[in-house]
Structure formats: C-alpha cells, structure tokens
Amino acid sequence: MNLPFWVRRTHKWIGLVIGVQALLWMLSGVYMTVISLDVIHGDHLAHVFDEPLERSGGRLDIDQLAKLRPGFESFKLKKLLGKEVYELRADGKTSLVDARSGDLLSPLPREQIVARAKDIYQGEAEIREVTWITQAPQEVAKRPVPMWAVRFDDRANSTLYFSPDTGDLLARRHDLWRWFDFLWMFHIMDYDARTDVNNSLLRVAAGVGLLFALSGAWLVFYSFRRRAQA
Fold first, then answer.
1. 115 class by beta-carbon count within 10 Å (0-12 exposed, 13-18 middle, 19+ buried)
2. Where are the beta strands (DSSP E) in 22-156?
3. Do 112 and 11 reside in the same domain of the chain?
4. Are 47 and 34 contained in the same domain?
5. Which of 173, 193, 208 is the last residue of a domain?
6. Are 136 and 98 in the same domain?
7. Which of 119, 45, 47, 58 is nearest to 84 (CA)?
8. Can you give the pLDDT at residue 17?
9. Number of domains observed in the structure of the chain
10. CB 212 within 8 A of CB 15
C-alpha cells in the first residue's frame, strides 16, 4: 500500500471540500475581531438612563394600587418620559399604570414610542419609519412580539425595537450588526436560527478540518524525513 500517495490524495480532496468553509471561517473571524463588540451591540446608538424618582408626592401607595389593579404579583416604580409609572406583572404579562391615577397605559401608542426613541437615540438623524410588528424579523427573532420598530434615516440604517407593554428598549440593530449576524451564520454553520454552535454540520466540518490539518502535518513530516534520508 502506497501510504503517502493516499494521504496526498485524501489531503487534496479534503482541501477542495473544506477550503471554502475554511475561508468563510477566516473572513468572519477577521470581521468579528476588527469590529468592536460594543459597536456591534449598538451601545453608541441609544443610551438608556433610569430617571430619578420624586421623593414624595401624590403617587398611589401599594394598598391603593391593589384596590385599583388587583391580582398583580410584582411591581416596580419607574419614570417613563418624565412620568412616574408602576410596572405591574400578573399572569406572565407586564403592563404600565399611571402611578398617580392608576390608569392603564399599556400598550403604549405610537406617539409615546416615538418620543421614547427620540429621547434615547444618540444620533442626529430623523425617524424614517415607525412599524407595529406582530411577527419578529430574523434580527430580533428571540424578542417577544408584538413590538414597535423605530427606524432612523442614518447611514447605518439604525433600528430601535421597543416593548409596547413597558416601553423598554428591546434591541438595537444597525448594518454592522446585520453583517456580523450574516457572517456569524457562516461561522457556526447554522443557516436557520443562527444560534446553535453545537450543530451536526459544524461538528462534521470541524472534524474534516482536523483531518485536513493532520494529513498536512503528516505530509510535511514525511517530506522532511525523505530529504534527510536522501
């Protein structure tokens, strides 16, 4: 059996099969290391600050709140667009009520979401579009729907996603993030959800890549040994 011949042939065909994927691994890896993760996360696009609460004055106490909105399991007092609100959680759902009157505020209307987006957005661009979303796009597939999407007319095509129930910022998305997500799909070879780093296709590709490296190492060792014997 001519072992070097079969190792060379195996190494060549593995290289043809795995070469494109190896190139994608390298390209995506370079992008992920060159672009700061803080930039990818979009921390520069929107800053969320907890507004200070008033020390006292006119808000409902817990007993009054329980009479007006019975059945809540937990609550949180916070400020939203300059107004004190209670965030109530009951039966797995969250809603906002006015901390002074007890009036239900959720779901927040378009006007308040626009005001919220302008308040936290750090750029100079104007809002291009505001969309009510009931089916989450791929870039926010894990976020709960419905949600509001506020798109800005900037170079990065920035989009801020908000919860209509709490007014919370759910996600920041922009073109650098979208490129990262696209390359991440090729990097982990999960072409569906783009989240499974232990999928079978990646394991097979990694195993084949290891075989390619080992066969190449063997050929290098074999060639040096032949030269030494010559």
1. middle
2. 74-80, 83-90, 93-98, 127-133, 147-152
3. no
4. no
5. 173
6. yes
7. 58
8. 73
9. 2
10. yes
Q: Taking the CB of residue 77, how many other CB atoms lie within 10 A of it?
A: 13
pTM reported for the whole predicted model: 0.83
- Cβ distance 116 to 81 under 8 Å? yes
77, 62 contact by CB (below 8 A) = no
The mean pLDDT of 93-107, rounded to a whole number, is 95
149 and 213 share a domain?
no
Instruction: State pLDDT tens for residues 55-68.
Output: 766 899 999 999 99
Statement to judge: residues 167 and 184 lie in one domain = no
CA distance 13 to 22: 14
pLDDT tens digit sequence for 114-167: 999 999 999 999 999 999 999 999 999 989 999 999 999 999 999 999 999 999
Q: What is the pLDDT of residue 183?
A: 94
Q: Which of 146, 149, 60 is nearest to 97 (CA)?
A: 60
β-pair partners for 216? none
Question: What 3-state class would DSSP assign to 225?
Answer: helix
Q: Which domain holds residue 166?
A: 43-173
Q: What phi-psi label fits residue 162: left (phi over 0), alpha (psi between -120 and 50 degrees) or beta?
A: beta
